[in-house]
Amino acid sequence: MSKKWQISRRRMLKGVGACMALPFLDAMALPGMSSPVPSKSPLRTAFIVMPNGVHPHHWTPAAVGRGYEFTQQLLPLKHLQDDFLVLGELMNMNSLRTADGHYTKTANLLTSTRIRQTTGDNINSGGVSIDQVIANHVGGDTLFPSLEYGLDRIATGVDINVGLTRLYASSISWKTATQPLTKEIDPKMAFDRLFGRYVPGAKIKNDPWKQSVLDAVLDDAKSLKRNLGRSDQDKLTEYLDSVYSLEKRISDGANQEKFAANLTGDVKKELIRLNQNIEEYAEVRSGVDVTEKTRMMLDIMALAFWSDASRVSTFLFGNSVSNRNFSFLPGVNDGHHSISHHMDDEKKLAQYVKITQWHMEQYAYFIEKLKSMKEGESNVFDNSMVMFSSDLRDGNRHSPRNLPVLLAGRAGGRINPGQNLIYEKETPLANLYVTMLEALNIEKTSFADSTGKLANILA
C-alpha cells in the first residue's frame, strides 16, 4: 500500500502527560528517495566498561587478522566474530599514577587525560570524555544528547589507602573536566525518563506503577497507524510490542514494592531478584544475580538507539574497585575485586575468567539486540559502534598497558570488523577515539594525547 504523505523524523506519539519517540518509518523518508532509509542513517555510539581487568593470558587471540582462534574469555562472542574488532596494545598513558591502582584509570578512561589527585569534591578529570565530544555534535538531533547507565550507586568518601576521593570511582562520562554525568542505575527510572512518561507537575489519577506509557499515547498511535503503509504499520506494531514487553518486565516486580513491609525473608529475596530495585549492599555483597537487571538496562539503551531518543550512551558494569559478589555464577565464590587480585592462584584465575565471560555474554546480548532492530534494509547495529573495555589489563598488577578493548558495529559501513589487530606497544587509546570520530564524520583530528588514527579499522 503506497502512501504519498510524509511525517517528520522527530514525530512523537503524544497523549495526556506522556510522549514517546518512534523508530524510523518509511513515511519519514524524503520525497524522491529510492530507499526508505535516509541517505545517511543515524549513527549511534555506545561505550561499555567493566572494572577490574581480565585474565591477561586468556584474552588476546594468537593470530592477527581474520579467522583467529578464540581465547577462553572471548568465547561468548564466537558466533559474532565478523561483527567486532579485537584491538591490542592500546594504553591510556595518563592513567599512570604510582599511588593508585584503580580510580585514576576509571575516571579518565574516556578522557585520556590526567585527573587531579584530591580527597575533596574538587574533582577534575582533566578534560571532556569522548562520548560527550560526540554528543556535542549529534545530541541536538535527539531528545537526549546522551544517556549514562550503570549498575552501582555513586561511591562516596575517601579511599585512605591511596588518598583519593571515591567520587572518581563512579563516573566515566564527563560533560566538562569538573562535571561528571551521573549514571542511572534503576531500570524503572531509566525507562520512564527515556519515554517521558509524565509531564512535570501533571496530576496522576491512576497508580503510576500500573499505568502503561502506551495507554497514554494509544489514541495517537491508532490515528497515526491508519495513515501508514503496510510496512510501516508492521514496524510500528513491532516497536510498540517491544516497548510493552520491556515495560511489563520492569513493572511486574515493582508492583510488589508496596507489600514489602510484610514480606518474609525468603519472599523478599525472590522479589529482590525480580524487581531489581534493591538495596546496594544486598545486591553487591550477597551474590544477587544481576543478569536480568543488566539486560533490562541494555534493552533500554537499545530502545533509545532504535527510537532515536539518543545516539550516544555509556554503561558502567561496576564502579572502580567493585567487589560485586559473582557467586551466582557456577564455580565462583567471591567478589570481583578480590578475585582480580589472584596472585597467580589457579583457582582464582579460573573464577576471574568466568566473571569476564559473563561480561562478554552481556556484551553479546547487546549486540544481538541491536541486530534484531530493523532499520530499512539494515539494522541498528550496522549503524552503530559499540566499544567495550576495562580500565585495567590485569587487576592483580593494576596494569593499564595493553587494555582489553573491543569495537563492535559497522558505523554505516565505515568500520571494517572481524579482525584481531595488534598495534605498537603503548599506542594511545585516544587514537581509537580519533578513529571513531572520523567514522562519525566529526571533523576533529586530535583528542587528548592522540598521535593519529588506528590503521585497518576504517573501511
Tell me what you see in this structure.
With 459 residues, the chain is an alpha/beta fold. It has helices at residues 103-106, 130-138, 187-194, 213-226, 230-254, 265-275, 280-285, 291-307, 336-340, 346-371, 430-439, and strands at residues 12-15, 18-21, 44-50, 84-91, 147-150, 158-159, 164-165, 174-176, 179-180, 312-316, 374-375, 378-379, 384-390, 405-409, 420-428. The strands form five sheets. The protein has a seven-stranded mixed beta sheet, with helices on both faces. A hairpin with a 2-residue loop joins strand 8 (174-176) and strand 9. Helix 3 runs parallel beside helix 8, helix 4 packs antiparallel against helix 5 and helix 8 packs parallel to helix 10. The chain is globular. The chain starts with 11 loop residues before the first strand and ends in a 20-residue tail after the last helix.
